[in-house]
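Chapter review. Work through the record for Extracellular solute-binding protein family 5 before attempting the end-of-chapter questions.
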Amino acid sequence: MQAAIEYLTLRKAYPKIPEQVPVRVSMEELSQILYCTPRNVKLILAKLSTNKWIEFIPGRGRGNLSTLTFCVPGEEILFMEATRLIQKGTLDKAMELIRQYGEGSSTKNRLISWLSGYFGYSVEHNSQHKSEILRFPIHRKMNTLDPAYAYYAFDVHIVTQVFDTLVQYNQSSGRILPHLAHHWESNVDCSRWVLYLRKGIQFHNGHDLTAYDVISSLHRLQTSDEHNSQAWLLRDVESLEALDSHTVAIRLRRPNHLFLQILSFPPTSIVALEACESTALAPFPIGTGPFRVERQTDDFCILEAFRHYFKGRPYLDRIEIFNVAVQSEDLGFLMEPHVVVNTGESPKQQVPSWIETEDFYPGSKLLTLNQVKSGPLQDERLREAIHRFLNRKQLVEDLGGNRLYPSNGFQLKRPPSYEDKEFDEEKARKLLRRSDYKGDTLTLYVYERHVPDAYWIQKQFGKNGIQLEVKIVEWRDLLLPETIKEADMILYEANLSHPQLSLLEALQSPFSFIRNHMGPELASVVDVKVSQVLSESTNEKRERILDSIEQILKHNFALSFLVHMKLETSFHPSLRGVQITTNGWVDFKDLWYQPNEAVRFLTST
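Structure tokens for Extracellular solute-binding protein family 5:
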């Protein structure tokens, strides 16, 4: 509300004047304070007077001073405006307002106390029913809710809450499970597929799911901009046909034994036919998932439970997600959002009474080395030197946190080891001396989550004569083609939520930093191997081919694996149904709260 800002600006200009004590002012003075013309000053004063925040008596006659009286403490207006901004989903703006106008006041502590009750679980009552709400902060922006463009883990996670795929992949068993499709068949070589849809499934707009929605969704993904989407997933699709309203036939250009896994991948989620006619899915995405999008901005998202969800309505009525910039001095109020997934972006918060779980993160943190860009990294000796200078065991010991073991591959091998057999400082120095490196400054691009690792690497390289500049960018900016092209190295986390398919994504997707940093010859070799993976019918042989691709990448020093990580989750004892998805986030659908009354009833004597 602009009136609040104007009042706070005036109040800040007269910090020593108590409320209810008149102060003599001139219109020229107020114009300078409010940065506007005398005419606009009069409008502002009239508005503030109407709100009963000030009393203003204009001076009579030219040159006579006016009288201004503050009626409301500035801290009250500041608190009111900050809470209003938070309820609108702009928490960062609220904290910036506190920093700008609340210095030396108790407003920040008061707001922190208010937030401790606002975040987490709450119940809102109206005349008809109660609404159970879970509000929690995250330290990253939502880049897109469009399945065709979803790449980052949190975007993909939200997509899975709003949309459904035709089938699902069970990581623990490695099996494909029915979902929107209750059954499927293929010919012998898996080049033709028929899927049979469940009846009675509704989209969030009330329309029933049909084969035509499936065809339009897959066609939309297939024909989307291949340089900026996940269209690579369906490049083998030759034709899509509705045999009837609930039967879909798909013809492929070549055998693909991973096609069902592809149809379980979130970017192939089914979107309502009407929404497919718009490239932007405006104004909100329309899926069949357990939650519908009520509101979404870069910094705020409201998900409402979809009462007609075909696998059962969610237990919670609403999920509110707030993006919070990582400001360590302001993190105290985030102590109790009732569920915390520690991804390493903020200090770990420990609450003694909470339940804590740990698991391995599926994938690896790694460094890509750009072989497309002309410059020092064209020299394989320099790339190997960079690889050998990295003491991954020391990285784990120095930075700790959720870093668990040195990594030498995409997946954690069993049994894990703390030893780093790739680190060889003496060999690295010899390689560096033999290389053509002349002291050029290399660029390492990274987003906030991995900044400590980037600076650690910068220090290791610096003491060995390799100049490295760390460039910190936003998540979405890291995906820009010009950023990827410019970067000599990119540090990020490869998530293998679908072990084989996620690895193929890293090798084929236009979003993939690994793919974009491969030289053309290496990319051609990898593409041949990927074709072999898709045509191979047995899982064991596919694994061997994928392992050979990993060895090729390592042999060419196209990347350098850094560390495997653990995933830590802590949550309030009353929160039930906590399940961590393969993307490393909490599945919202099955969350529910045990009422305090139930605990008292069960424990009373």
